[in-house]
Amino acid sequence: MKSPIITKFFDPDTFTLSYIVADPNTQQCAIIDAVLNYSPNSGRIQTTLADKMIAAVKAQGLSLQWLLETHVHADHLSAAPYIKEQLGGQIAIGANIKVVQHVFADLFNAGSDFHMDGSQFDKLLDDKEVFMLGDMEVLAISTPGHTPACMTFVVADACFVGDTLFMPDFGTARCDFPGGDVATLWDSLQRILSLPDQTRLFMCHDYMPAGRELQWQTTVAESKTKNIHLAGKSRAEYIALRKARDAQLDVPQLLMPSVQVNMRAGRLPPAEDNGINYLKIPINKIASA
Q1: What order of strands is seen across the sheet that includes strand 63-68?
Q2: What is the DSSP string of 136-191?
Q3: From the CA atom positions of the chain, what is the Rg in Å?
Q4: pLDDT tens-digit map of 213-253
Q5: CA nearest 143: which of 123, 132, 128, 131?
Q6: Measured between alpha carbons, how far is residue 92 from residues 37, 70, 71, 84, 96 in Å?
């Protein structure tokens, strides 16, 4: 079984890992979870990391086929539409994006012009749907729990887990966002851990606990035996641990801007009558630890 060629990128401001995943035979590639740099203090957007990914695609002689989002991120803005403008490709996400849109459209009073049918994306992916990346098959697995629309992508021996799972020394995803559910996440994690032991798992985040060096790749076998939230835990024990952990967590710094943009496939809310785009902050509507 041939393996894809994988190039990783890291955004230290949001601890996010993005990937270029290429079919070595056809030079077709996908970009997974691209980051748009955003300063919450000034409201300014930059394309520093996205431009690095664009340059890498060109330098490797690749053709961009897909811009894949593992979920509606709550910690960074997606650069997918910006990259699409430069390189083409289709933006894809799990079909349950519609559930997320319904939840947050009300919170942000998105208005009648905001369609809650996922039509902002080029492709909505169903559970167990297989699509092609060049000559390689990509399996989309629905893995909700962190959010309803979380999707894991499997390309040969490589699996991109989004926020569902972290490196073994950091554990698993939080489930306290609207639409999240701890028991559902446990079931989703079992789907990932049922893949062959040698399957490589690629992280969407690494927070480098205890000041260790950046890590972004583990395996199914290592996650089953060493993950601090999963190894030796029963379903009930995991649910209790995760709920206790979530009760101590504060809201991510970029939750408000990220969700408003990412539920629109990475596009800003429409400009108002003065020609300026605004991001809203609902007051006293999101709980904090």
Answers
A1: 5-11, 16-22, 28-32, 63-68, 90-94, 123-125
A2: EEEEEEE--SSSTT-EEEEETTEEE-TTSB--TTT-B----STT--HHHHHHHHHH
A3: 18
A4: 999 999 999 999 999 999 999 999 999 999 999 999 998 99
A5: 128
A6: 21, 9, 10, 12, 12
Is residue 186 within 8 A of residue 239, CB to CB? The reply is yes
Q: What are the extents of the domains in the chain? A: 5-262
Q: For residues 127 and 95, what is the distance between their CA atoms, to the nearest angstrom?
A: 8
What are the DSSP E strand ranges found in the chain? 5-11, 16-22, 28-32, 35-39, 44-46, 63-68, 77-78, 90-94, 123-125, 130-133, 136-142, 151-155, 158-160, 200-202, 217-219
122: tokens are 């080029």
CATH homologous superfamily of 5-262: Ribonuclease Z/Hydroxyacylglutathione hydrolase-like (3.60.15.10)
CB atoms within 10 A of CB 280: 13
Mean pLDDT value of segment 102-129: 95
pTM for the structure as a whole: 0.96
CB 108 within 8 A of CB 126: no
What is the identity of the amino acid at 225? T
Helix, strand or coil for residue 201? strand
